[in-house]
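Let us practice reading a record.
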Amino acid sequence: MKKCAYCGRDNADEALNCSECGTEFERAVKPPEVTNAKPHDEEKTLTIRIFSNYDQAGIAAAKLEAHGIKCWVNADDCGGWYSNLTAAVGVRLHVRETDAELAVAVLDAKPTPAESRHIEIEAVLAPPLPIVSTNKLAWGQIVAGIFLGILTCLLYQWKSEPATTPQYHYTADGKRNGEWIYQKGQVVEYLEDRNLDGQWDHWIYYDHGDEVRSEYDNNFDGKADEFWTYPDDGRDTSQRDTDFNGIPDEFGTYKHQIIQMVEMKPNGSKFATEREYFKHGVLTEIWRGGDSNGNFKEVVQYDPFFNPISTNAPAGLPLPTPGAQ
């Protein structure tokens, strides 16, 4: 019985207040319960398995928990936002250090015939996965999914793009005078050292295995002074810097690799001062003395042996004979 210190009334032991005057009885303070338990963060754990995905790790974790073994599953995938990161470091299965040996034994143990039958029955009786109709998805989600898929493919191709691989050609005395550069198994560039001075002076560029452009350094000063282009229509072009001042002054046109015409435009001039015409690759005419209006003072015609046969120049002037082309 509890006796009220104010009015002296007897009260039941479980009473919190005096039934006579309402005075509140003093309550005994219960001491905190002392346990030896430690939070998970302070418990020492061990990684006993590393899986390639969460599904495999979840199956193993369920098996351990069915045997009363506490376990944890985690991975360095930014909280599930970047699941592709698990392919590199995997999904880890942890248990307490004291349970590690038992957990390994449980995972390594083969299922009994009864357990195997139970698994088969559950697989047969399991309901089929629901089929999600695409018309329930918003168009924005579909477009975003397609965009992300394309972006992923492009990034994969970019990351897997093979580096260029060179192959070299050497002379009999061991000097390197040629280099082929390949990409994806196709040649993309060829470099040649024609005078064997250790510097490239001829460059050929390819597109899908076809030669599209070439350059030459004819005075071997490290700078190209002759340029060729090879378009698909067979109308090749050439530019030469004959005085090596860095400005092309001779321009040639070809059809299926047969020369058609050559023009001289000194020092980058827009107007030709001399023009040569060819037929079937043979020089037929030379026009000289061109001005800014496109007029030429002299036109000389030649026979197939490069002999001048006619000219519009005044009588008495000698007919020039060109050098062999």
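A brief commentary: The helical segments are 54-66, 86-89, 100-108, 113-125, 139-159.
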